[in-house]
Amino acid sequence: MFTPLVHPLRASGLLLALLACGQGAQASSFDCAKAASASEKAICADAYTAGLDSRLGKAWTAALAEAKDPKALRLGQREWLKERDQCQADLGCLRSQYLSRLMVLRYVNIPFSWQGTWQRVSVSPFYGGELVIRRSGEDRLSFDLSAMGGANSGALAGKLQLKGGEARYGVEGCKLRFTPRNGLLQVTQEGDSYACGAGSGVYYDGLYVASRQILENPYDLLSTALVRTEEEDQRARKLLQKDYQTLLDSGSVFSQETSAELKGAEVTDMWLRGLANTNAAIFVRGAQGQLWVALLAVVGPTDELRVRYYTTEPEWKQRLPDVLLNWYAARRSEGRQLPLDMMP
Fold it and tell me: How far is CA 6 from CA 13, 27, 162, in A?
């Protein structure tokens, strides 16, 4: 169920106005009737994402007021807006962009120092990364870098050469570039996962902030846009109970499917890279916010693997829609029994 946005959206216009004007300028409200890009229209149409936009407007104002280099910060914000607009109308992408930027703005005004501990910015807990840099000479650094990609991981250590304001690392098949950006550190990787000492789907690319503590960000059905509103999220929590967390633990990779039986439904097949045999689910959101969920669950003292099926719809409590039935059949075709539990 969608909740319409009944008030004009302020934050997108606020961000653009602050970028264009001086620090002391007053920003005007953004009229959603004049939204031009696909991303702006999507933000205006979705109350939760609009709320993130409003929060970002306030965080941006506060960060700009404390910036020692406002010009560089505005340039960084313009670059972020371009990245955001690449999401088009994809709410999952948009929400991830906003939550990541909100996290980044907490760190942009910390004075930069190469030496220290850095955390990779990621909304998903399955794509974290930590970088430790130590100075070993006037133009030399050493580093230890670790990262995740689902249940897979990678680790790399070596020496860095400082040159032209950047630090570089290179061995056969793997190159890393470390670039300071407004108190943050951008890591760029050339080479595949294996050449850089990592498992499948694990990369070190990304934006890192100076922090010894692992970054915490909301990771739920709202942040992933599997549900649209807080009301829908609460309905999912009530339906799934403890399996709400089981569902979140089931996916670092998401793909879209279709259902011939559930017209207009959004179908998301999800699985955890590296543990897809035990961590996988399928999540269906109907056009009016109805929910159908099937997930793998490890239960009992013998760690038996079962499938649990949930739905908000009484007429579907004892039968699976086509797309869930196909998903269940595919799991069983792998040679497993997989008992099916029809949950209340």
Answer: 16, 20, 52
Q: Would you say residue 1 lies in a domain? A: no
Distance CA 340, CA 344 (A): 13
Rounded CA separation 133/116 (Å): 5
Residue 283 phi/psi, 5° resolution?
A: -125, 125
Range(s) of the domain holding residue 206: 116-210
Answer yes or no: do 199 and 299 share one domain: no
Q: What is the pTM of this model?
A: 0.87
275-284: b or e for each residue (b if 16 or more CB lie within 10 Å)?
Answer: bbeebbbbbb
Number of domains present in the structure of the chain: 3
Q: Which regions in the chain score pLDDT beneath 50?
A: 1-29
Instruction: List Cβ neighbours of 2 (8 Å cut-off, separation of 6 or more).
Output: 45, 46, 228, 229, 289
> Coil, strand, or helix at residue 138?
coil
CA distances from 225 to 111, 167, 290, 303 (A): 34, 37, 14, 31
Last residue of one domain, picked from the residues 104, 131, 155: 104
Q: What is the 3-state secondary structure (H, E, C) of 299-322?
A: ECCCCEEEEEEEECCHHHCCCCCH
| SS percent in the chain: helix, strand, coil, step 5 | 30, 30, 40
Q: Give dist(CA 280, CA 104) in Å, integer.
A: 30
- Distance, in Å, from the CA atom of 29 to the CA atom of 92, rounded to the nearest integer, reads 25
Segment 157-196, tens digit of pLDDT: 999 999 999 999 999 999 999 999 989 999 999 999 999 9
User: Per the structure block, which two tokens stand in for 342?
Assistant: 């029809």
3-state secondary structure of 212: coil
> DSSP code of 104?
H
CATH number for the domain including 140? Answer: 2.40.128
Please enumerate, as own/partner, the contacts of 328-334 that have beta carbons within 8 Å and a separation of 24 or more.
328/294, 331/280, 331/296, 331/307, 334/277
In a domain, 110, yes or no: no
Q: 246 with 335, same domain? A: yes
Question: Helix 91-104 crosses helix 38-45 at what angle (to 10 degrees)?
Answer: 90
